[in-house]
Amino acid sequence: MRAHSPCDFSQLGPIEVYFRNLFTSKGAVSFFVSILTLVAAPFSAFSHGFAGDRFFPATITTDDPFAASELSLPTFSAIRQPGQPPTKVYDISADLSVLVLPQVALTIGDGYSFQKVANQRAQTGFDNAALNILYEFFENDRHETIASIGLTWEIGGSGRRSLGNDTFSTLIPTFYFGKGLGDLPDSLPFVRPIAITGELGLGIPTSSGTQSSPNPNTLEWGIAVEYSLIYLQEHVKDIGLRAPFNRLIPLVEFAMSTPLNRGVDILTTGTINPGIIWSGQYFQLGIEALIPVNGHSGHNVGVIAQIHFYLDDIFPRIFSKPLFARSN
To answer: For 328, which of 33, 146, 165, 234 is 20 to 30 Å away at the CA?
Structure first.
């Protein structure tokens, strides 16, 4: 499940100062590299997130199409949000997904925000919680293809209103897909490690708002383009990479939102997020830049980092089967 609203920070209290140092570009990279150094030993093959030979990692700012038991804890994000005056905020969030039926996963997520406007006291509180149910209805191993449908319920009023959380709920039916290019001919060896995942959803608010402050339906769409060095090494050509570089997946994510109606100007907002994921047997580490796509999305580059656990590989006796699997 995607991370909550990205955010930034400055001139906060003692705890906030720690995260400010962590989420400067230098601090975030140092944090990521230090953890990676501790876990860079080689791992055996894992079962999470596969279509044929293709391993799809859990993307950070867009949702991946797999129904699986997994945990994102924590996700840290930091960016300056536009406004008059702009707000510097950072967010700590978590998402828990459990496979409840064959190919059906239920996810719950929430976050805690720290927001700071110049010359004002910092505001803190929870974001609106979200529930998602996802059904993985198609998988083709030969062509490394997967497709799912899902429904997200962003629960209005569950977060602190003064932080800008909506008092109304939003329902988002969504189509998810993933496609690896490993089925291309051997004459294109260095293209075959590429994979694309994406989502296309319709955000439907339960309140249409007022004439002066409408709540439009929105097109929620995103794409992730990945280049798997894991796939390159194991299924195309061993180019001699060693740990931790043989477990890296460079990627770029595009997380966008476009209003559709109720007199709101059709203007897409969102971020372009280049980054990298390291994936091991039981968990993955990821870090991305958050680059606003236009002035209405912001003017400052942020950062997002995540630790993501594969619960079905860590606790196979508990999570390898659906919670309500039919007993033999």
So the answer is: 146
Residue partners of 225: CB distance under 8 A and separation at least 6: 194, 195, 196, 251, 252
Sequential DSSP letters for 113-136: EEEEETTS--EEEEPPPEEEEEEE
Q: What is the pLDDT of residues 24-53, one digit of tens each?
A: 445 544 544 444 444 444 443 345 789 999
pLDDT at residue 189 tops 80: yes
C-alpha torsion sign, points 192, 40, 4, 91: negative
For residue 39, the one-letter residue type is: V
Q: Which of 227, 221, 129, 120 is nearest to 169 (CA)?
A: 129
Choose between 83 and 102: higher pLDDT.
102
pLDDT band at 15 (very low <50, low <70, confident <90, very high): very low
How many beta carbons lie within 10 A of that of residue 103, not counting itself? 16
157: left (phi over 0), alpha (psi -120 to 50) or beta: left
Count of Cβ atoms closer than 10 Å to residue 16 Cβ? 17
Mean pLDDT to the nearest integer, 205-214: 90
Beta pairing class for 170-180 and 54-55: unpaired
